[in-house]
């Protein structure tokens, strides 16, 4: 398969990337096509859809040997399930699937056609193999069962984001960062209330800690280019 595009986001590492698409609706990305695929005609009619499917590569999770079982982080990393019963990045083929909101179709950007999307769960630079429209009558299944995920509490954190750090980001970035922190990006086996975690975001190292159900941003340090 050929890479047709890549996505640009504010998340250069996997720490902080939402566990599923659509969880942080304010987190945005820009999809830029490879030169071979920069034909506006390929996007004709796409603007009539509100959501799209992205088929992409776990480009930083390649492994030489696959395992039939994995340990989902949401189960604390202590329980093994079949790889095909999870969305683990460590798969026989390192492919991901995300449903994202299509905010804008830009046919003539500086680098050719661009798609502006939100609700992403992809790192900066993630290669994309294909794009398909989300079709509600076929893709939506309200009666669907969620397996082990239905037993997990969807707990969100309060977020304290002091103005002295907040002012360094655009309003969209502020909303996205609050959304990420509210979903608790820490591994589920890390629950040290005294620990300060670091997460790269939009050119800054976001340092935060979690205590008593609140994620507090304690510092935002500019990263060197």
Order of helices and strands: EEEEEEEEHEHHEEE
Structural class: mainly beta
Low-pLDDT runs of 5+ residues are none
Mean pLDDT value: 92
Percent strand: 25-35%
Q: How many DSSP helices?
A: 3
Largest sheet: 6 strands, antiparallel, barrel
Rg calc: 18 Å
Spatial strand arrangement across the major sheet: 1-2-7-6-3-8
- Terminus-to-terminus distance: 32 Å
Tell me, what's the shape? globular
What percentage of residues falls in helices of 4 or more residues?
Answer: under 10%
Domain TsaA-like: 1-143
Keywords: S-adenosyl-L-methionine
InterPro entries: TrmO-like_N, TrmO_C, UPF0066_cons_site, YaeB-like, YaeB-like_sf, YaeB_N_sf
Family: Belongs to the tRNA methyltransferase O family.
What do these coordinates show?
This protein is mainly beta. The protein has helices spanning 136-139, 163-166, 171-182; strands spanning 5-8, 28-33, 51-57, 69-70, 81-82, 95-109, 112-118, 127-133, 158-160, 197-201, 204-211, 214-222. Strands 1-2-7-6-3-8 form a 6-stranded antiparallel beta barrel. Strands 9-12-11-10 form a 4-stranded mixed β-sheet. Strands 4-5 form a two-stranded antiparallel sheet. The longest helix has 12 residues, at 171-182. The model has no long low-confidence stretch (mean pLDDT 92). Residues 1-143 form the TsaA-like domain. This is tRNA (N6-threonylcarbamoyladenosine(37)-N6)-methyltransferase TrmO. Keywords: S-adenosyl-L-methionine.
